[in-house]
Amino acid sequence: MKVLSDIEIAQNKKLLHIKEIAAKLGIEEDALEMYGKYKAKLPLTLIDEDKIKKNNLILVTAMTPTPAGEGKTTVSIGLTEGLNKIGKQAIVVLREPSLGPVFGIKGGAAGGGYSQVVPMEDINLHFTGDFNAVEKANNLLAALIDNNLQSSCCNLNIDSRTILWKRVIDMNDRSLRKITIGLGGVANGIPREDGFNITPASEVMAILCMATDFEDLKNRLGNILIGFTFDKKPVFARDLKAENAMAILLKDAIQPNLVQTLEENPAIIHGGPFANIAQGTNTIIATKMGLSLSNYVVTEAGFGADLGAEKFLNIKCAAANLNPKAVVLVATIRALRHHGGAKTEEINTPNLHHVKAGFCNLEKHIENIRKFNIEPVVAINTFVNDSYEEINFVINHCKSLGVQAVVSENWAKGGEGTKDLAHAVVKVVELNKSHFEPLYKWDMPIKEKIEIIAKEIYGADGVDFDKQAKLNLKRIDRLGFNDFAICMAKTQKSFSDNEFLIGRPKNFVVTVREIEIAAGAKFIIPILGQMMRMPGLPGVPASEEMKIDKNGVISGLS
Amino acid sequence: MKVLSDIEIAQNKKLLHIKEIAAKLGIEEDALEMYGKYKAKLPLTLIDEDKIKKNNLILVTAMTPTPAGEGKTTVSIGLTEGLNKIGKQAIVVLREPSLGPVFGIKGGAAGGGYSQVVPMEDINLHFTGDFNAVEKANNLLAALIDNNLQSSCCNLNIDSRTILWKRVIDMNDRSLRKITIGLGGVANGIPREDGFNITPASEVMAILCMATDFEDLKNRLGNILIGFTFDKKPVFARDLKAENAMAILLKDAIQPNLVQTLEENPAIIHGGPFANIAQGTNTIIATKMGLSLSNYVVTEAGFGADLGAEKFLNIKCAAANLNPKAVVLVATIRALRHHGGAKTEEINTPNLHHVKAGFCNLEKHIENIRKFNIEPVVAINTFVNDSYEEINFVINHCKSLGVQAVVSENWAKGGEGTKDLAHAVVKVVELNKSHFEPLYKWDMPIKEKIEIIAKEIYGADGVDFDKQAKLNLKRIDRLGFNDFAICMAKTQKSFSDNEFLIGRPKNFVVTVREIEIAAGAKFIIPILGQMMRMPGLPGVPASEEMKIDKNGVISGLS
User: What is the top-level taxon of the source organism (chains A, B) (predicted)?
Assistant: First the structure.
C-alpha cells in the first residue's frame, strides 16, 4: 500500500463548510467572519468566563525532544478526535505555523498523517493574515523609531546604540541577522547596526498571545521598551504614540481562527510565538475561546515540558487564571533510546537497554508535572520500529510511578488510534486528580523565581549569573519590572543549559548569560546559551520541491 | 454643518452583505470566497472573454497633477455611482492601497467624501492579504538568492555585486533604502550592499498585475532576472527553482477582491503597482473580471495621462487585448492655476488669468488621448473655491476643441453629482467614437518605442541616452528582450523630465539615465531622473493621530 503524504491525505478529505463546524459549537453563521469556506474568525464576544471555569483544559507537552520533535501537535489533534469518538465534546487549540520552517527544513505545523487540521495549505501559508499583521505592527514601530532619530521636530533623544527593537520578517533569511541600516547620506536616516528576527520572535507576537482583550493588547503595545535616551531614560512605544496604530493593524488578528480536523471536529489556531525566547503557545484569547465553547480543550506548548509546560503553567495559566485538569506527556521510544545513549544512527533500532537507560528523562518530567499539582498521563506516540518489549517497559514503569501510559496511534489511525488515551485523560479529569498551583508567585524577586525554575524543574544545583546578567538585573530593578513572569530561554535538548547532557542530568548549575525584558508581554527573559531568532534556509530549501499546477493544486508542501 | 471626515462618512454607511453585492452581478454566494461579511474574492472561472469584448471599458486619467492629486479615484467611484444612477450597469475597478502612505503623508486610497469604497478601514489596512502575499513571494526569492550565495551544494556562481533583486516591505521606512547585509561571520551569509523597496515597487506586484492566468503568473515569476554569474550569464528566478513556491504564495492573491461603493454598487479592488517604475494600474485579471460582470467598467491609472494613460493603453490594453471606449480626463481648476503659473500660496484663489494660461496642459493631454483614437471627456473635479468664470472658461475651451467638459461633484454628492459626467461618457460610448490603437507595436526596437512616447506624448524634440542607458540597451539586446513593452519612469509633475517645466513645455529633450529590465513583467523601464522606491515617514507620522477604541472603532485613518 502506498503511504500517502500529509498533503495528499489532507487533499483527499472533503471538508465541511466552516459554518457547519461552527454549528457544532452552537455558533450562528452570522457571528462568523469567514475567510473562504473553511476558515473563520470568531468574535471575542463568544468568550464566557463562567464556561471557562467549568470546562476542562488539557495540556499536551513532551519529554525532552530529539530534533525531529516527538509529535505534540499530532497527539493533540489525535486526542481531540479520540475524545470526540468516546462521546466527549472536545476542541483542539493550536499555534499558527510560521512561513520560515515551511520553506526551510522543518515544514509546516498542521499535524501529520491522519491527525491533521485542514485546510493544511492555507494554515501553513498566509492563513488569515495574523502573522502578517504582527509583522506590520512590529515594523511600523521600527520605522517610527528610526524616523524619530531622523526627526528634528519631535526628537526623543534616543541613543541609537541602545535600541532594542528589531524589524521582523516571516522568512528563514540568515543574511538579515546582522545588517547596517540608514546608509547613503542624510536623506536615508541615521546609520546604525541592526538586524531582523523571524516574525514569531517578535514581542508583538508574545503580546498578542498574552492579551486578554483589545484594551489590554493596546496597553501592552504601549508598554514595549524600545531603548534608552542619551541620558539613560527608558523609551517606550507609547512615547512614540505607536500603540493605537499598532493595535489598528492587529484589530482582526486578535480574533481566534476556527478550522476543522480531518474528522470534522472543531479546531482553533491562533498566535505562534517562538518557544525559545517567548512563551511558545497559542493566545490566551484562543484558549479561553475554546473553553467557552467546548467541554474539553486540548492544547500544546512548544519544546519539552521543562520549557513548554513550565511556561504554559507559570506564565499563561497564572496570568489568565486558567486551571488545567490534566497534562499529557508525549514520549516516543525513539527519544527514550536517545536519552539512553543511542547514537543518531541507532535511534530507530529497537534496544531495550537504551530505553531503560533513557526512562529517567521521562520520569523527571513526570515528577515536574506533579510539582504543579497536576496529574500527568503519558502518551507513547508509536512508530513502526518500536518493539513490544520497549513499549511494555514504558507502560509498566509508568505504572510503578502511578501514572497511566497509553499507546497513541494518532498518526496512522486518527481518533480511532487515541481512544485509550482519551479514556485515560477523562479518568484523570473525572476523578478530579489535579489542583493546579503555579510554581512561583510573580511578586517574588526575579532571581528567586529563576532559581525556583532551575532547581525544581531542571534539577540544577544552582544558578550562576554572568556579569551582563547582573547588570540586567539592576536595570530590571531600576525600571520596576520585578513582578514580571520569567520566560526562560534555554536549549530544548537537555534539562540543563548544555545540550549534550541528555537523560536526567545531575550535579550541574545553569548560567544566565544575560536577561532581556519584554515589558509589553510582561516577562523577563533569562538567556541561557545562544538563542536563534532568525533561522537560515538549508542547502536545498523545501521551496524547490514545491509545485502548483494550473488548477492551484499544491504538492511538495509538508 | 459639520463636515464629516472620510472615515466618519464610511462608518455611517450601513453596508450590504457582500453576497448581496455579488447577487447584483449574478454571482452565486457559493462562488465567493468571503473575507468577513463585506469582502470577497472572485474565482477566475467567472472571466468570460465574450463578455469582455462586448462590454465597455472607461479609463479615468488626469491632467498633470499637483502634489495633492486631482481626484482620479473619487471621480472613478463617483462616475460609477452616476452611471448606475442613470440606469447603466457599472462597476469600478481600482488599485489596492499600500500601508506606507496610510501611515505616512498621503493617506489611504479608498476614495473620499461621498465617493468611497467600503469598508474603508479594511481596504486601507491588510485588506485580503494580497500585498502581504506579494511581499512574501518577493522576499522568498531574495532569501533563496542569498542562500544560494552561501550554499556549497547547488551554488549558481552568482556575482553578488550584480544582484538586481531587492527585498520589499510595505512601510515607509527610509532607513532600509541602503543597507549592508550578511554581516557577522560565516554563519550569517555573504556580506553585500542591499536595500529594501516598498512592496508596490516589487516586480512581483507588476507581474501579478500583468498575468492573464495562473500559468502565466508562474511563468512570469520564473522569468524574473535576478542578476548575473561571475561569467556574466543571466540568472533567473527559475534557476533557483523559485517560481512554484512563489506562485503558491500568490494562489489567493491572484483572485480579484469584491467590495462595494457607498451607494451599494460593486467595486473590484486588485493589485497596486507603483505608478513611477511600474504600470500603476490594477490587474489585467481584475479589469477582465469587471468586463465579464458589468456593461460599464470604470478604472484608473496612476499620475497624469502622460504616464498613467500611456502605460495603461500601450502596456496593459495592448497585452490583454482590451479595447477602451472612452477616457475621462480629470482636471481641477487648482491644477490649471498651477500650470498657469500660480504660486503654491495662490493655488486655491480664483484667478482666470492663471487658468487660461494653464489650459495648455489639459489641451496637450486631450491631443494625446486622441492619438490613441479614443475620444476624451473632461471631468472638472470641483472644489469650493472654484469660480464660475474659471469653470466656464474650461467648459467653453474644451468645447472649441470638440470635447465635452463636465463638472463632477463626486466628492460632495456621490452619484447625484456625476450624472452629467455619466451621460457624457455614455454618449461617447454609444456614438462609438473610439477605435483604440496603441501608439507603438511591441516588436519595434526599444529606442524607437521610447522615442515615440517622448515625442508624441511628452512633446519632446528627442531623447538623449546617457552612457549607462546605452550599455543597458546593449544588455537588453544581448538578452533578447527587444520586444518588451516600455514602462517609462518619469516625474509626474511635468510632461518633460524636469519637474519645474509646468504647463505644456516645448523645445526640450528628455534624458534616459539608465534602463532597467522587468523580465517577468515583460517591460523595459527607462529611468528619467531619480525614482523613489522607498518613501520615508514625515516628522509627525499619520500613525500618531490614529486611535482605536475598545470596540475596535477607528478614528484618524484617512
Answer: Bacteria
